Structures are given as C-alpha cells and as structure tokens.
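User: Modeling request: complex.
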Amino acid sequence: MRLSKASWQTYKEIPKEAEIPSHQLLLKAGMIHKSGSGIYQYLPFALRVIQKIENIIRQEMDAIYSQEITMSMVTPGDLWKESGRWDLMENLMVQFHDRGGKDLCLSPTNEESVTDIFRRLVKSYKQLPVSLYQINTKFRDEIRPRFGLMRGREFIMKDAYTFHADKESLDIGYDEMYKAYSNIFTRMGLEFAIVEADAGNMGTNESKTHEFQVIANTGEDDIVYTEGDYAANIEKAATTRVGLEFLNNEDMSEVETPNMRTIKDVCEFIGTKQYQSLKSLVYTAVWPDREEHFLVMLLGDDELNELKLKNYIGCNFLLMTKEETMRDLGLIKGFIGPTNCSENLKVIYDKEIDLNCSYIVGANKKDTHLKGFTPSENCNSEKVQVDLRTAKPGDLAPNGKAVKIKKGIEVGHIFQLGDKYTKAMKAQVLNKEGKKISPLMGCYGIGVTRTMAAAIEQSHDENGMIWPISIAPYQVYFAMIGKTDETKFLGLDIYKELVAAGIEVLFDDRGLGPGQMFKDADLLGLPIRLTLGERDYKVDGKFEIKLRKTGDTEKVSKDELVSVIKNKIKDLA
RNA sequence: CGGGGUGUAGCGCAGCCUGGUAGCGUAACUCGUUUGGGACGAGGAGGUCGGAGGUUCAAAUCCUCUCACCCCGACCA
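Assistant: Request completed. Predicted assembly structure:
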C-alpha cells in the first residue's frame, strides 16, 4: 500500500476514555474508531491484523479437519427457547422481533444454531464426529464494556463446535483442539499460558475446560502457576497452605474487644497470628424460587473465592447478605461467629481449617470475640468442609511446588459441554444398536479482536505498538525522505520490487518530514522499517533497515535489499 | 444495577465558584520556507457549550430533570 493513496490518520493526543495501552494505541494509530459503548469500527490496518489472525486460525482448524461455516448473526428466538436459554440469557442478548412479531436475537454465541445444523445434517453414529467452526461477529450486551477491544459488546469470535458419540471421542476431539489452539497462539508470536479453568454455566464439573491466557500486566485474570507443569485460573486454582501452626484444644473464653471490627485489630490485641483466627462471611445464595443463607468460615488471612462457593452451593447467584437479614439471623456485624446463630444459617468451613484446633472467632455479641473456639467441640451444627479460599503466592500446587501469580488476558477457552444442548434440542443419532443417543459436544472459542488487543498489551513501548510479524498489518514500513523526482522514482521502483518479491510493504510516500514518518512508523509498529533518505543515499547509495523490536539498524545497498529483508522476515517469524 | 466521575471545535483542555453571549493547544485547510525524529512563518475555517425545562433584562456559568460516555464491582472470547 502507498500511504499517499491511503486513508490513514494518526493522532498526537488520545481520547481520555482510553486507559490501557491497546486501546490508546489503536486509537492513536488510527486503527479503530469507537461508534458506541463497546462498539468499534475496524479501519484498514486493524482489519489487516484481524484477517491475519483469522487466517492462522483457519489454517489450524483446517489441519484438524474442522470445516468452516457461517451461521446467521440474527437467530430466531425459538431455537433459544428450545434450549431454555431465551429467558436465561435475556440480559446478555439483544432481543427483538420482526414485523410479524416473531422473536429474534443477535447471537451472543451459537450452540443453539450449530445444534440445529447438526440435527438436520447427522442421523447416524457413522457420521460422527462432526467438527464445525465459524469466524463471525458476536453481540453481547455486556454489563460493563471496557478497555476498548478487550471487552467490547460487538466483537469478532471464532467459535468451533464438535459432536461425538462418546466421551472417549470427545476427549480426542478436545485434545486436537487443545493442540490446534497452542499452535495458533504460538504462530501469532504470543507468550501465553494454558490454564485449568472454571466451566461456569457452560459445562458440568467433570467437563474438561482450559483457558488460553496471553500474559500481560493489564490482564483481568490472575493465573496461578508453578514453573513447568501447573497453571490454573485463580477462580479454579486449588492450592494448599504451608507453615501453619494452629493452637490445640484451648478452653473457650470470651474476650472483650471493644470496637475491634477487623481481624487484624483483634489478633494484634490478643496477640495471635491472623491465621489463628477465623474470618466469618455471610452470603445469601439465590435460586429462582428460594434463598438460603450461609456462614463461610476461612482462616483469618485468607480471602474467599466466591466462585468456588457458588459452585459448591449450586445457586444462580450469590449476594452479600443484607444487614437487616444478618440481624434476623442473630449476627452482629463485626463480631460474627458460628455460635449462637440461627438454624437458618448453614455453616461451611474452608478445608484449610483444622476442625480440632482452636481459633479466635466473633462471639455474635457486641464488642466480644471468642478465644479458643474449636469447631469440633464448640459448634453443634453440621461441619461441612470445602475448598473455598483464594489461592495466594507461596501456596503449594498439587504438584508440590510453590505457586506464583501473574496476570493474563483470556483469548481462548475450550469446553466439554456434554449433552446439554443435544438433549434439550433433541439432536439425536442412531448408534450401532439402532438406539437413539444424544451426542456429546465440545465448544471452543477464540476472541479474535481481543487477541489483537492482547498482542498489543503484551508487546508495545512508549512509542507505540510492536507487532509480531505473523499478525502485523504489513511486514515493512518503507519511509521515503526527499522530494526530488529522482528519489521518488527510486522509491517507487523499490516499492514495486519488494511487492513483486511477495513482501508486504507499507510505502510512506507522503512527502512528510522524517520525524513525522518515523513517529508514525513507531506508532504503527511494523516489524521492519526501511528508509530511503535522499541525503544519505547520495553519499553512500544505501538504505537503512531498522527493526522495531530491538532498534538494531543496518545499511544495505539496493541490490541486496530484497534478500536482506526476506531474511529478516524469516528471522522474525 | 450499586458506587465514583466527565460532557465546551476532530482530539486534549481552560472558562463555571463570583451570569454579560466562548478561548488555548493540537490536528485538519491555503501559501511560502523546511526534510534523518511530530520544523517554521503567515492566513483562513471550524462550536445549537450533551439535551430539555426553569430563574434572569441576560445562562457554558445558577436550579430541576434527562441522556451519553468513562472508571470500580457481578459477566465473559
């Protein structure tokens, strides 16, 4: 592309709404425009990145014999009613109706559509497994869109779906997809981690599910990992603590703790370690038809992992219990404990708590704590023990190594769905015995536009983006400095020669000052910058090649240009 | 939805407290000089001050309502 023919505008100042590097740089480099909250226009250079990402995905999907399809973005409400998600996803979906009053929605995901395709297409186990994918626009009316492309409402996603006769086949399909995903993100030049994840509403507890996380400081997810062989999303990570020394079987007594509402205050006052006390949290679990209240007990210096609690309870959502409800349950805020409270309150202990040891807890009495509280002796309610705590650095992973935590951006997620949709939508096939079975499904997503943003988050500097060559909008930024016809002809010649050699070149023939071109080049972050400077060229007849990532430069003569650049491209790949 | 914040030219901001009819920087436009890190000079253009209502002789400014957007939480590729 010649910039003199292109529509491209960069900016010196960036809209204040952009807070993270990818959002700021995409706007500054004129690659995207916002058209509404969480909705963006992709301008030419962004589109080129997107297309490159898509093509890598296509190649890797093709390699595992997944077939590309395109499902409609608008889907009929009837399909969603069959699966039961029409009402369930009401808040996430934009729902509307046509002139005939028929319900429609903008697809936030496509399990229903693909299952519908499947049930019309496949009648026999002999046709299994089936693997289909699409790369398409999704719309999710997110509660809070943010960070530009990182969490948009409209975004591009690759979603793949597989159908299998049995679990064994599903596992094989899942592993293939797992490997394909590894290849995809590796080829994109991204540093990423594959982590054990929480299945959320998508699957059951036995379903395998992994997330692909691009490592970046601005990531929204915490990844708990050890060197080598363990990585899990903090939502899921089940680690254990080390070096705890609990007190044994003390007698229980009341301690006056006026106005000491934090564990820190109480423990300092009594002179114990924070983990020798128990933290009491009150949660209300909500189902469509009922509510239940829970008292969650954790070691004093641990934090609750709400997702673990929600998964254990199996409710629709979880709320902090309201103050008046707490009063009804006999709980005094700041001094809550598992004694003297209502029978309507179910007590759950975190698994790190040794029920036979003694702790400081709230006494459910104003300005009072209990010392020497031993769950097995001083509490008559049922003692349920579950892993509820949030993993911390230094904990031990299942492999016995101490874990660390780093930030990640979830760019891919693979799930085993089971027969949830095939059952609900009666997508059945005949097995060998001629009996109807509901095939097992897997679903596999990649956030294409999010991946573009994640690549920037991972790789940029104060001057702009630094693209991995496999997804850069172009491979080479060719800056031409000089105004004489001679230089212009030379530049155009070189440009044509490079293009003819199959190199992707962005030719800056705008005739701007060198500073402006270099600033734009750095901002756009193409891996290789080629400069034709009239002044220098007259002296030594050479061009300059500079690498965006390292800043290394070298001088090259005209005849070597194509071969040197081709080698650089190879080195960068 | 709860909490916090912002809306004035494409973008970044000042003006608002103490009402008098809008300004700075930058980008974009024209002319000229510049050409290895956003260069300089000159000229011109661009705004229903988010919207509605109210107070007032007079509202960007004060009052009421409303909308949009951003940030913190639940959601997720």
